[in-house]
């Protein structure tokens, strides 16, 4: 379930195979999974101005190898 605390206690759940799409600029909380599996797809979309900022900040981004065993 997903909750947006700034807007009250209502929770949102996507149907099987569905999705909840929202701006990550909103304060949000993903509640713990109690059954089944949660998949997350986290694209970051930006315009040309955002692309320039991202390019300038690449020097501060490190890489980390993750082992998923």
Structure description:
The chain contains one helix and three strands; from the N terminus they run E-E-E-H. The protein has one domain (2-60). 14% of the residues lie in helices and 9% in strands. It has one helix at 48-57; strands at residues 2-3, 11-12, 29-30. The protein is extended. Strand 1 (2-3) and strand 2 (11-12) form a beta hairpin. Strands 2-1-3 form a three-stranded antiparallel β-sheet, with no helix packed on it. The mean pLDDT is 86. With 69 residues, it is largely without helices or strands.
Summarize the structure.
The chain has 69 residues and is mostly loops.
Task: Give start-end ranges of low-pLDDT stretches.
Answer: none
Distance between the termini: 27 Å
Total domain modules: 1
The number of helical elements comes to: 1
Q: How do the helices and strands follow one another from N- to C-terminus?
A: EEEH
Shape, per Cα inertia axes: extended
Mean pLDDT: 86
Strand content: 5-15%
List the helices and strands and how they pair.
Elements: E1 2-3, E2 11-12, E3 29-30, H1 48-57
Antiparallel strand pairs: 1-2, 1-3
Keywords:
3 strands, 69 residues, little secondary structure
